[in-house]
Amino acid sequence: MSNKNRIIQSLVQLLITIAVISLVGFLSSLWYFRIDLTSEKRYSLSDATKTILDDLPGEIEIEVYLDGDLPVGFRKLRTSVLEMLEELRIYSDRKIKYEFINPSEEKDKNKRLQIQESLVSKGLKASNAQWRDKEGSMSQKIIFPGAVIRYGEAEFPVNFLRNNPGLSGYENLNNSAEGLEYELVNAIHTITSDSILKIAFLEGHGEYFEAELADASRALSYYYTIDRGKPGGRYGILDNYAAIIIARPVERFSEKDKLVLDQYLMNGGRILWLLEPVAVDKDSLMYSSFATAYYYGLNLNDILFTWGVRIETNLIQDMQCSYIPVNTALAGNPPQYTPLPWLYFPLLSGYGHSITRNLNLVRSEFASKLDTVRGQGSIKKTFLLHTSVNSRIMGVPALINLRDAGRAIDEKMFRAGEIDVAVLLEGEFVSPFKNRMISEILPEVGSNYRKKSLPTKMIVVSDADIIRNGIRMEGGKVYPLELGRDRLTQELYGNKDFIVNAINYLVDDSGLMELRTRKMRIRLLDRAKINKSRLLWQLINIIVPVLMIVIAGLIFSFMRKRRYGR
Predict the structure, then answer these.
(1) Per-residue model confidence as pLDDT tens digits over 265-302
(2) E strands present in 193-318
(3) pLDDT tens digits, residue range 517-538?
(4) Which residues are paired to 424 by β-bridges?
(5) What is d(CA 221, CA 500) in angstroms, rounded to the nearest whole number?
(6) Helix H segments across 387-516?
(7) 253-283 burial, b if ≥16 CB within 10 A, otherwise e?
(8) In a 3-state reduction of DSSP, which class is residue 88?
(9) Which CATH architecture has domain 42-191?
(10) pTM summary value
């Protein structure tokens, strides 16, 4: 074969190769696929997520404030966020656009503080990160591990970091990575929804006033329209609400109000009950160091029992508890308040349900034991919150003495095990009024009365303080404090997340909340083996690639000489 023919043949082969590569590249741009070989399907989106992304009405802009010089753990979290956003962008047909921003890039201190204050005002939480650099010195930086999602004029904050004090840094960052899909997709679904669902806080029975529920209302307002109102025995008044919250009633419910709630549930309504069967005068406890715990009836036991739950009239003490300020000064001296553990303020843990998974401890005050009974209807019962194993039950009436705080504890008395405080009920409920004269209670119900419910849900919690935020008086005005923030230790508990997750789960019928149950295994390197074999692996990583290239070059040179030497 002549040299001219060889050149033509080589050009033809080159053109064919370029054409095939171009065709493969074009086809791959039209058909996106990815094979997830991880056991926990770390890189696979759920069907609920894909459905939401398919129905996006327009472009979504996401600003992620996790960039710049970051510690190793946050760099890994940034990588996880980037991978998740890229998946969402591809599956949304590129309707999602994202940008990583370094909020500390501004060199001017005042401008940098203004940027940080702006992010806090938008709902992002700052994290004070400390790490040791290569030279051994400590570095510190304010980091905002979160994002702001924009659709049109609307904005929605998303915080990535799950910071449970009881877990290691690796576990917290792993939990944060597990929740990325839910946090991002739930925010996208909320901000692009055509209609905003309504929820209501019930009034009329001495429930918490508005300022005591302000922080929970603010957190829920990102997802729902919030109302407050009295049922007043008016049938159908609750029908327009996706869920209702009953937070610490202290007055008896009339039969009319109970029937209104019953029929709301029978027609598919969702209810979050936060009840306290035992009354404790906390003001008297703080000022006189004594208070009496006593039972007061709410006239709710019959309907709750029919629906499969019973709240016992007692108080829980737990060795895993929060603190209370106690005056430890001697008589005649100025007050000196010291934080001391208070057994009546248990710190509750969550089970593995999607509502409580990766949740911080939940702070409670004077909680009671909650139990389930058979009830009527087909009801699935799932416990959500419980005490530690080192707990016990106190009967009422009882005299509570603040001076007991900080005293030596006889651990033998705290052997009641885990005591349940919150339960989820799902299924078809039976009306407790089915054998009663409805016309005598609420005549307007008439033929609309339902004896059995549509498939629905409710949550019952035996401590209402879980949803109550503290308040601060200043200049005659009331200022709500952050829900779950301990005023003594400044530790942030998981109360707010629990309330938001509970309502989201009650309202959600798409299965989106199930994304919170995703588990990812932490695969950490063995540091002992790394230190022992460091030099060996460094040599392998440096020498082996070079040897492979040299061997490949020799083989190629030998084959070339053999082919053209003929």
Answers:
(1) 999 999 999 999 999 988 888 788 889 999 988 999 99
(2) 198-202, 225-229, 243-247, 271-274, 278-280, 290-295, 309-311, 314-318
(3) 766 655 555 666 777 777 888 8
(4) 382, 459
(5) 10
(6) 438-441, 495-507
(7) bbeebbbbbbbbbbeebbbbbbbbbbbbeee
(8) helix
(9) 3-Layer(aba) Sandwich (3.40)
(10) 0.84
